[in-house]
Model the fold of this input.
Amino acid sequence: MRCKAKHADGSAFTLLELIVVLAGLGVLASLAIPNFIKYLEFAQVDEAKSLLNAAAAECLQRYRSSPNEWATHEPDALKSRSLPGNYQYAKDSSGVELKTCPEISIYDPASANESTNLISLSFTLAGGKVIKESQFYSDETEQACKSWGNCGGSPQAQYLKQCNLNKQTCEQNLSAELAKELDKRLGFIAWTGVCSWPIDPSCGCTKEVWACDGRAQYSVADFEACLTAKRGAACNGHLNSLKSKTGFTHDTVPNPCDRESWWLNGSEVDRCDYEFGKWKIDNTEGAFSASGCTKTGFKCKVPNVGMKVFENTSVKPSDCIPPPPPPQPPTPTPPAPPITLPQCMYLFGKCIKTAACNC
Done:
């Protein structure tokens, strides 16, 4: 029996016609399905970017509002939505998933063995800055990688992360010092410069800063003005009298300021600088050994120089060790005594011939 399908007009399809149609549909499917999967992955990349952008905004807000908690915070944006497609969280060296605010990173595991349209995406929150990085595995997704930022990883991204982490550490150290409520010069501890590319060599914790009344002061004038406002008239008058003195002054309590202080030529210094300065000008040889001081030094009397100070060392320098005495000339060997021949022997006045005497 011959099977026939029917055309719209009632005539039948042949089996050959059906095979041709099915073959055509198969060719179209083989072309359409890969493109459909590719564009589906492109959509997943856009969804992943949107998810990480929401997480970055939440982390940044958390950093500013909860400075003591942001480092362990997992954004709610990541908890409420699952990662699209085959995306997974990357892990650190100890196997912990990178999904908290200091660093969030996602990738497609297939990228280790084959090309994938799912680009790797990550961001780091360092020093209050969001620094993005990405990596692509298919030429068609290069532009998507570049639009996220620092595509392929870069020295710029590594520098920006480290620079902002340094800034964060610097600011934390400054906050810790200010919390001590000390009125003193803190040294080079405040942050200066901006983390930008190309590298700014002036960036760092190199800005002079003083602490007064729990606040940072960035000039001597501001520091002195803060102290003047904080102290009473009696204390200010007392300090002005100390500023007029020369040499070394140790101001002990009780005094109108009710605190111990050390002064050198009208400037207040810390105790170690005071003791180190006095040690340098006294007439005693040896190492500096004031209790609790980190300063080191050694001094000695060098011939034709006088007292010489060697700072930043507690080891006796070679200049302090007397040179060895010059070598002495060898003692000459005394000459051998001359050989004295025995006298001739005489017997009854007559010379006797011997081996040593030939008469």
Notes: Residues 15-65 form the longest helix (51 residues). The chain has a mean pLDDT of 85. Residues 68 and 326 are 69 Å apart (CA to CA).
